[in-house]
Amino acid sequence: MKFTPPQLSVYFIAGTQDVSRPLREVLVEAAIGGITMFQLREKGSGSIQEEDKRLALALELKQVCHEYGIPFIVNDDVELALASGADGLHVGQEDLQAADARSKIGSSLILGVSAYTSEEAEQAVRDGADYIGVGPMYATRSKEDAKAVVGPERIEEMRRNGITIPITAIGGIAAEHVKTIISSGAEGVSVISAITAAESPEKAAAAFLAEIQKAAM
Ligand code: TZP
Ligand code: MG
């Protein structure tokens, strides 16, 4: 699946460690609600480590994504991304180098890179990223090693510095933040807990999509 910036509108990220019921169920509901991209981030305490189980999970979730026309992205694990036939890979600064990631996945897969500063954003562009993830926007409990909060101001700063690559904002984002985040120059929002912890992932996803559509008007 080819990358287009509107796919960043409502980017749902999750792994089995983020949910208390089958991830597939939560993903289906979020997809019905209107998420536009999904990333399997099987990471941290409680996550699945066995390669065969990670592959089975990835294949199951990719199928759901494709039923709903959503790109399926794998966090960090280039072997898993390739083995599962994912649409893309997302790497952080601590993971494999973005340029290596690009050469391993080839030119047709989507590459996302986390960038904390304008310098990292510029490097990500040189390394062949299709989009960057910028955050944490707000306080988050979903990432064990999250950096200090940067706020939407960091996105404004990147745009002022001439960074034009599509941006997804991440970290502690709720639907009421969408307007501010889009105004700062991001294409969309990435969320874990706002969807995984919601009583209705479908309604939560729909609320994000509605806010994105309002912000675009
Ligand atoms: N990277 C920066 S913050 C974060 C990641 C993966 C976690 C986002 O999760 P939440 O629950 O939406 O704050
Ligand atoms: Mg990572």
Walkthrough of the structure:
The protein is α/β, with parallel strands linked by helices and 217 residues long. It has a single domain (5-216), classed as TIM Barrel (Alpha-Beta Barrel), CATH 3.20.20. The chain is built from 9 helices and 8 strands. The chain has helices at residues 23-33, 51-67, 78-84, 98-105, 118-127, 153-160, 178-183, 193-196, 201-215, and strands at 10-14, 37-40, 72-75, 88-91, 110-114, 131-134, 167-170, 188-191. An 8-stranded parallel beta barrel has the order 1-2-3-4-5-6-7-8, surrounded by 6 helices. Helix 2 (51-67) links the parallel strand 2 and strand 3. Helix 1 (23-33) runs parallel beside helix 2, helix 1 runs parallel beside helix 9 (201-215) and helix 2 (51-67) crosses helix 3. The mean pLDDT is 97. Magnesium ion binds at residues 75-76, 91-92, 95.
Please render the helix and strand layout as text.
Layout: E1 10-14, H1 23-33, E2 37-40, H2 51-67, E3 72-75, H3 78-84, E4 88-91, H4 98-105, E5 110-114, H5 118-127, E6 131-134, H6 153-160, E7 167-170, H7 178-183, E8 188-191, H8 193-196, H9 201-215
Parallel strand pairs: 1-2, 1-8, 2-3, 3-4, 4-5, 5-6, 6-7, 7-8
Helix pairs in contact: 1-2, 1-9, 2-3
The structure holds 4-methyl-5-hydroxyethylthiazole phosphate (TZP) and magnesium ion (MG).
